[in-house]
């Protein structure tokens, strides 16, 4: 599954996990069942991201930290992604031509 677990309420889901939400400082937190953590290849201290899709589904994915080449500054890459997101429709139109 490449470290990503899709949670949904569709009938095709073969495993369903239920957890209570608890307080973690000023935030809310939830624990992962060991079998799910094993599938995602996560351990204590790892970072996961929550991705909300247009259909309202939430994906959990282990954050992959990538080492940038020496000549690429993170702030330049971040600016590129911001511009890309702002102009996504233009890029999609160009791709579909």
UniProtKB/TrEMBL annotation:
Q: Which keywords does this Swiss-Prot/TrEMBL entry list?
A: DNA-binding
The answer to whether keyword DNA-binding applies is: yes
Q: Look up keyword DNA-binding and say if it applies.
A: yes
Q: What is the top-level taxon of the source organism?
A: Bacteria
According to the entry, every stretch annotated as the SpoVT-AbrB domain falls at: 22-68
* MF terms in GO: DNA binding
Protein name from the UniProt record: AbrB/MazE/SpoVT family DNA-binding domain-containing protein
């Amino acid at each position: 599954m490449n470290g990503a677990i899709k949670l949904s309420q569709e009938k095709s889901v073969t495993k369903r996990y239920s957890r209570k939400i608890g307080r973690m400082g000023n935030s809310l937190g939830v624990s992962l069942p060991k079998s799910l953590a094993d599938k995602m290849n996560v351990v204590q201290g790892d970072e996961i991201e929550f991705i909300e899709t247009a259909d309202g589904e939430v994906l959990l994915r282990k954050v992959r930290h990538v080492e940038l080449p020496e000549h690429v500054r993170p702030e330049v890459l971040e600016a590129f992604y911001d511009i890309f997101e702002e102009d996504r429709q233009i890029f999609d139109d160009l791709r579909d031509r």
